Amino acid sequence: MQADTSLDAPRPTNPADDVERRLLALAAELVAEARGAPAEASRVALDAQLDRDLGLDSLARVELGLRVERAFAVRLPAELAAQAQTLRDLLEGILAGTPGGAAAPSRVVQRPAQGADCPLPDAARTLLEVLDWHAEHQPERVHVTFLASDDSHETLTYGELRTRARRVAAGLQRAGLVAHEPVAIMLPSGLEYFATWFGVLLAGGIPVPIYPPARMATIEDHLRRQAGILQNCEATLLVTVPEAKLLARLLRAEVPSLRQVLTPRELERDAGEPQVHAARPHEIALLQYTSGSTGDPKGVILTHADLLANVRAMGKAVGASPRDVFVSWLPLYHDMGLIGAWLGSLYFAMHLVLMSPLAFLARPSRWLAAVHTWRGTISAAPNFAYELLASRVDEQELEGLDLSSWRWAFNGAEAVSADTLDRFAKRFAPHGLDPRSIAPVFGLAECALDLAFPPSRRGALVDHVDREALSRTRRAVPVSADHPRAVPVVACGRALEGYAIRIVDRAGRELGERVEGRVELKGPSATQGYYRNPEATAALRDGDWLDTGDLGYLADGELHLTGRAKDVIIRGGHNVYPYELEDAVGAIPGVRKGCVAVFGSRDSRTQTERIIVVAETRESERSRREALRADVNRRAIELIGSPADEVVLAPPQSVRKTSSGKIRRSATREAYERGAIGAAAVPAWRQLLRLGASGVAASAGRWGAALGRALYGAWFWSAFAVTCLVAAAGAFLIPGQARRQRFAGTLCRALAAAVGARITLEGGEHFPRGPFVLVANHQSFADVLVLFAAIPRELVFVAKREYREHPVLGPLLARVGTRFVERFDVERSVADARALAAAARAGETLAFFPEGTFRRAPGLLAFRSGAFVTAAEAGVPVIPVALVGDRAFLRADTWIPRPGAIRVVVTPPLVAEGSGFAAAARLRAAARAAILARCGEPDAADETAPVFALRNTSPRS
User: What confidence tens digit (pLDDT) does each residue in 528-546 have?
Assistant: First the structure.
């Protein structure tokens, strides 16, 4: 007989049901704590959204993960901290999690066997030279240890880093990367990141770090912000993980310059040797994009010299040495993680112990465990990380923790809380933390990274000032800590060696001690500006100083920050600072802590600023919402002396934030003024569908534009071919070189008009009556045509002898008077130089391109000496001519021109002082400076370029 399976038979209990029940109860308890009131039972369900339905912010989500691990004795995957959307996601994580729960720190590991002391690359001028130095002197030294999980790690030596970076560089060059093209890197923390970053530099590109998407709920906003960055820098390649390639292809539809999306594995797949780029100190080594609105991304230009100057200054301030161990969970797309943790470790041969930011967010105690385990001496994080450790970590996770090795605990990148510093120091002093190790610092991307450090191991210093005096008179009047109007302001230290800080008023006048104003900086790593953003660059500069955008004051030589200038609300002549009010409102039960934005919005009728408070809440009952508004205004009256003009109680995700969790007040204000606050969240599938639709539209537009360019290219080359045929006929039929040149000029002007090249001549009055030597920058194959069309003088072009051997160009160039010179045979080159000088003395006007070549990337190359030796020996003036727009018209790597304006700018004549080579060298420098000042391109001179190639071609040699 079969067993009885009727409905009346008892069923076994499903263990998953018990886990589900306990999880819902745990979540309900946390939601009640966060709201300050019991949660509705119907709201806490498995498919409830953690943020939208339960109102749990990022800190509360971390707390939920910690409680789940403790309650169920499991270790959840680190990715759940950022990717879990519902309680069901957490339930699946519990059922699949590793048994064990949150563990205490492990025993101290045996550190890698390597010489602790070693010389440093003090003579290095670029980051590539730093890597080469270490790879050649200590290739087996462990540079990075990446903690892949709690139980495993992988290492990268200096030798391995250079080898892998060379493979990536070869892959990038196979993909068509041209020198000075930006390459976006959208990778999570890991060893692939380091190889990719240096691979871009080795291939001649410019690394552009951007952060990978963490949550599908905000995918549209994320991709559109990244598209804004990619459009601004005109990135040609994007390197990302395989899982993100599909999403990254959506970016290609928004970014016309983006040719390919690749993975590090694809780049390293086919071994090959790259053509290593010879980097120069003042070449761009990094574009660091700052947090900003979607429509106006700002890429800070940082050169090799900038980065090395800042890294060396920071290292000197902290006494960094190869004996140090830097422990970091900071993301590598953020300047504190990239420059401070990684490049600082790279230069000073410190051992970098790195973990994923997701691992830290899933269990913050992992950071402390890594400091304990690897005997970390230096580490850094924003204030929120110290707050998590001070308030959200269970004591059992700290059992056996030893932090006595930690000598520098930097706190920066966001506003530093005096209360957080105090509680962190007290919480971990019993675990060996020296309070003197805590170091609030100040820096900004426009300075590479850091600007101010506190004196060595001084610990946190807090200045208490009168709130009323600061608001009314901008003076930081000291008061006791228990004063009713006391505001704590944390000291950030003094300027690094070689840097300077000043405080100025709105008119740019420097202010005295304890007077609040705008913070400005000067130093060896101060950026030259924002990439392709001249308006923002102009706003950044104040003469030789850079405006940080921050407000603060100096006291005893130390910088004290009071806020961001753009965030301060001016009301009735008083400064209203949003930060205190945001914190106070966030502490009200029912308001989501850390999800409050206070900003000013101009009233179009009265033209005054209204104070707006946007506070996220899950409260829906009318009476409760009115009570919340009353509580908010009570706090406002206490802190700023008046209620807010409007209190907006908004659902979760209404307050805009940066990738690191900082409040984007400007973006929140824009959403408020558009009426977008409180709009229903758009499902991820609809966001992707909308992105796809816009991508199709963008692709259709690009296909149309590509067809238009192809048709224009066909028309251009057809017109060019006809012009060449007519020019060839005229060259052989028209008698007299002068007539042939005038005929060539007429044809070039006709061709320019036919193809829409608008050529204008500026400074024609500078041409002398007699002969001269014309020197021009070289931008494209069209340069000769442009000069023929623009300059109303008979020009004899000087070209390399190889052109004379060309079966078509050779006879044609010879018929219009071109003079050919030898570049390789010394005897012939000397004879050619003598002939050129004689021709100039006889009255010929010679035209040179002293760069000798051209390339796709903008930049004025080094000048060769031949033209200037000729002018000095012949005693004729040099006329520098700057070509502007010709490179964009016909770039080096394309045969399809782009119609546009081309300017030919003639500068005043220069005359050599004497006839020797020294006089020619001075003439060359002056002519190049004149062209560089007018061509609108950066200085791309290579210090190792053979600028003295014709040194021995003087007739007197």
Answer: 999 988 899 999 999 999 9
